[in-house]
């Protein structure tokens, strides 16, 4: 794995670890104010949103976390960081496959109707301001359908199952992600442009979706995002703003 990246103070590679995001939290405690890359060949306790398990078998994916601790790299509109990470990841995946990569709100990437990548943002706060941010990204690369648990085979996919434009190489993909991430940073300074960019590849835009969260469950037409990155759902009672929740496409019939 490469170890020299602009803007990165520390590069840490593990054969196996509990979770790259957990290690990133430990790194922040020991090295505040530093940027770092934490990557692992396998995770034994990888996790996604809502504390769900993220399956991370050895050598089958790109399991890594980016620590943003340097003050100049903490975005003022940090709530858009997940969308930005999704855009960057989509750009990189499109260098490897001709299959359209779609953004599923709030933090997943899909090819077709199956998930190929999940993103988990975690923050450490200093008063009312984020003192650091962790961007955890898990990309399925080399799994065959049989590598997924039976209950996941209808909903998960990997890069190797797509039409490829070039050979899958984890170090090259990581280098591309870091390069694109920092080169496009100004996109975070223009929320309207970022939202427009995300919506160009939005999954289920203008389709009827079902939304579930801790407080409610309802359906409506997905009309995109507001300037804060929250979902706009058109219902018979008007447009609802959804801050957090689970999206699924409403089945006909």
Structure description:
This protein folds into two domains: about 10-200, Bira Bifunctional Protein, Domain 2 (BirA Bifunctional Protein, domain 2, 2-Layer Sandwich), CATH 3.30.930; about 210-250, Roll (SH3 type barrels), CATH 2.30.30. About 20% of the residues lie in helices and about 35% in strands. The chain has four helices and twelve strands, in the order βαββαββββααβββββ. The strands form two sheets. Strands 1-2-3-7-6-5-4 form a seven-stranded mixed β-sheet, with helices on both faces. The chain has a five-stranded antiparallel β-sheet with strand order 11-10-9-8-12, with no helix packed on it. The longest helix has 16 residues, at about 80-95. The chain is globular and about 50 Å long. It starts with 9 loop residues before the first strand and ends with a strand. The mean pLDDT is about 90.
Brief descriptors of the model:
single chain, 4 helices, alpha+beta, BirA Bifunctional Protein, domain 2, five-stranded antiparallel sheet, 253 residues, SH3 type barrels
How would the blueprint of this fold be written?
Elements: E1 10-17, H1 20-30, E2 36-43, E3 61-68, H2 81-96, E4 101-104, E5 108-111, E6 114-126, E7 129-140, H3 170-183, H4 191-200, E8 208-212, E9 217-225, E10 231-235, E11 238-242, E12 246-249
Parallel strand pairs: 1-2
Antiparallel strand pairs: 2-3, 3-7, 4-5, 5-6, 6-7, 8-9, 8-12, 9-10, 10-11
Helix pairs in contact: 2-3, 2-4
